[in-house]
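Predict the 3D structure for this chain.
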Amino acid sequence: MTARPAPRMMVAMHDKRPLRDDLQATLDARRELGPDYEAALVESFVERLDATIAARVQAELGNHGVSPYGPPYAPPPPKAKNPGAAMIPITLGSMGIGIPLTAIAAGNAGLVGLTICWLAIVLINVAAAGAIMRRG
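Done. Predicted structure below.
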């Protein structure tokens, strides 16, 4: 009495048949076309082999209930709260506006105008930072 392979083994052997046929077809094409096309034929076969392996890995992971992208239905990790990141545009905007205002204020009103200009910029930045910190 001969032992029959388990059904899982039969499925695995059945899955390998198309790959064996692809390899045989690649070898036959190489014999017909010659060595000039060998690199293209090998590349084509390797791409099919990679696709087959990827499909088998996905199927096996699916059989075990494991996602290749992490645990199933896992919530995304919480974003780290960084309230300082919201200040970057305000800071850059203040610098961009502050440079021409410095030239205008210093040219027209001297040191008093320059001081008033930068005090206003500082007060606006402090108020924006306070609002962002209360929100975040």
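Residues 4-13 have pLDDT under 50 and may be disordered.
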